[in-house]
Amino acid sequence: MRWTPSRLPRCRAQNRTPTQPARTASSYSSASTLALDGQDVATVLDRKPDQHGTLQPTRVIGTVRTIRNQKRRSFVEIGDGSTSRSLQALLEPHQAEGLGTGTLVALIGTWQRSPPGKEQDYELQVEELNVIGPADAEKYPLQKKFHSTEYLRTIPHLRLRTPLNALLSRLKSECDYQLANYFRDHGFIRLQPPIITSSDCEGAGEVFTVSSNPDARHIGRADGSSLDGPDQFFREPKYLTVSSQLHLEAYMNEHTKVWTISPTFRADKSDTARHVSEFWMLEAEMRAEALSDIMTTVEDMIKHLLEGLRATNLVQELVTLKRRDGVKDVEIGQQVASLISERWAGLTERPWPSVTYSEAMEALKYATKSGAAEFKHFPTWQRGLQAEHERYVAKIFGQGSPVFVTEYPQLIKPFYMLPSNRESWYGSDKRATVACFDLLLPDGCEVVGGSLREHRLDYLSHAVQKCGLKDGKIDDGSVGLEARRSSENSNREWYLDLRRYGSVPHGGFGMGFDRLLGYLTGVPNIKDVITWPRYHGRCDC
């Protein structure tokens, strides 16, 4: 007989044989013998009796979050990833025998109004209970108590069952949907760039080397030099990507606008709330001659995202979610709700201001001299903006909104950025700037970085030489592809080919997807936003 979902046995008494005993909480039933098509908790919680007050039988599948046994009744809170709320179910004492926190159950009963004064307007009067997945309540790591974020990071495979992390998973899914719609509606093509690459896009050298040799601890450096010999699998060192930008640029001749969202890797040992070794980056490239066009796209994209999220129940869940248990729970919840509301308002209710790097630096130096602010790192032109500087600039210029900082010094930015003065050669002027921007969030950090790209072969080749990435000899194409590929500098030659064989003015940006989510949700540490955080010293599961 052909298998279809409708042929799965239903979990009701009339479907059993006369000799088959009724299932109780203490009797385990394999999931393969149960119909797993019950409603999720969110759907059940939103149900109301019809206009005649008729209550229909309800079937729900979820995990036991808490259980409270009394003499005549047992009260069980059931939850799943569909909502951060819990469903209250009423059981007879014998039904709750052996039932504990963490057990996955299927409940069938009547959804009816609760007695006056109860927190939940409706509750499930359970008629039948089946244990789908048992759990040892005493050993279950997620007990009904406050768990620190540090503890939860040690069990990422179970942490995702908590209401906050389940909500974050749904939020990420909705963000992906909204962003894909935005880019599709604005003529962008979604692409899948490679994870294994030949070069370090940012030039910082913080890359993970890929090797098929389990004994190879150091196969090569980001500059292409070998330490212990070449990796035999790829013939030369290859790395996990730090950015998809260079590969997205390859599409500019054929497509006007492209984008992707993909994992990115940095071998950065920084132990801060905003650094991890693996994270997701949204990147886009587009034909453009003005930096303002790219900045407008970034602002429009994020505002569109928030507008789409507000049309769902996710925002309400964020501001009402219990962040912890205890006497300060209400106070903490109110603080987080207020913070989230302020951040969302700052992102959506007014245009985002823009200042130059020079203006930001002047404000920082004035604040230092006047005593208006104290910084651990004194602001200087060539050192860039530290995190404390970014927070101050966002506060002063943004006034609750994000702020674009533009025209950074050329010598502290990657080689591929277009000079603000189009006739300026790389390194010819220590005060030279590039057509770029960073988007700074209030009380946060840089979340988006973008620039116009150098599309001229001679200027780009000169920048590559000055950065020490190759010998600097400009090849007009007469040498031939094979000769260039065989050279020790071939990891950059393919990028220069994009300028040799027809180029177009263009630019793009990269947005830290997880950083933005942390800001929107009030989660201060990126390690608690990413489901499976990888950082220096830790890579669990």
TrEMBL record:
Alphabetical list of PROSITE patterns matching this protein: AA_TRNA_LIGASE_II
GO biological process, one term: asparaginyl-tRNA aminoacylation
Position of the signal peptide: none
Ranges that cross the membrane: none
Pfam families reported in the protein's UniProt record: tRNA-synt_2, tRNA_anti-codon
Keyword Nucleotide-binding assigned: yes
Biased composition regions of type Low complexity, renumbered to the chain: 22-32
InterPro entries: Aa-tRNA-synt_II, aa-tRNA-synth_II, aa-tRNA-synth_II/BPL/LPL, Asn-tRNA-ligase, Asp/Asn-tRNA-synth_IIb, NA-bd_OB-fold, NA-bd_OB_tRNA
Name of the featured protein: asparagine--tRNA ligase
Organism: Heterodermia speciosa
Gene designation: SLM5
